[in-house]
Amino acid sequence: MKRPAHWFSDALFPHGTNKHGPLPALLVMLSVSAGLVDAVTYLGMNHVFVANVTGNVVFSGFAIAGDPLHELWAHLLALFSFAAGAWGEGRVAKKIAEPRRRLFHLTATHAVLVAAALAVVLAAGEQGTFPKAALIVLLGFGMGMQNAVALRMAVPDLVTITVVTSVVTRLVSQKQEHAWRRRACAVIALFAGALIGTALYLLAGMAAPLAANFVLLALIAYTARDLMPRPAPQ
After folding, report:
1. CATH number of the domain that 205 lies in?
2. pLDDT in tens, 157-210
3. Residues of the domain holding 158
4. Closest Cα partner for 42 from 57, 23, 54, 55?
5. CA–CA gap between residue 229 and residue 224 (Å, rounded)
6. Residue 159: phi, psi to the nearest 5?
7. Portion of the chain with pLDDT greater than 90, in percent
8. Distances from the Cα of 99 to the Cαs of 5, 151, 152, 168, in angstroms?
């Protein structure tokens, strides 16, 4: 009997053509995670994105032009942290060549970083320069890692877990076949994460969506663990 992740992944491809196992479902779940964390930082830290770096590039321009709603240092720190996480994934890739094993290790690491961010919020709150900087570094680094490893998975229409501009463009401008399911899921997943993250933030503050994100990442890592190649019997 197929597990839910396998069933969902198979439904995103024409019958019998899914060669990625449950990976598509895991990448959709990572898009939900990205929406969750961006809702947290955008609402709780003065319009800072840690997953959607395009927003930080645009907002940096706003800050330089004098918009008081945006802090240049925060947007630049988010960009640097995201880039550092992506760079770190590249270094891990040299040591852990098998992509699915790497997905497990990096998602587990990301969960630890989110747990550390949750600890910062519980201990020091979300206001003030130091807590804000710590949260941006922890969450931005994790999102950089996850985006890089998702890109290496090379699942059609799910190679990015944060940027949906190109996905929406392909959704409405190109021949659909079964691809529309993957493209629609990419958009819906990011939207759902943002919706859930915002609702939790407005209901209970920053700790609630961070806790939810930790649980989600732990679930993804647990599922990814089953994908790792088993050692050959002696």
Report:
1. 1.20.1250
2. 777 777 677 777 777 776 666 677 888 888 899 999 999 999 999 999 999 999
3. 4-225
4. 55
5. 11
6. -75, -15
7. 51
8. 18, 11, 7, 27
Q: Is residue 232 part of a domain?
A: no
Rounded mean pLDDT of 31-41?
A: 93
**CA-based nearest residue to 38, from 128, 120, 147:** 147
Contact 131, 120 (CB under 8 A): yes
- State residue 62's pLDDT score: 94
Task: Tokens for 16, please give them.
Answer: 């019998």
* Tokens 């922890």, located at residue: 138
Mean pLDDT of the 43-71 span: 91
Instruction: Specify the pTM.
Output: 0.89
Task: Note whether residue 221 is domain-resident.
Answer: yes
How many domains, in total, are found in the chain? 1
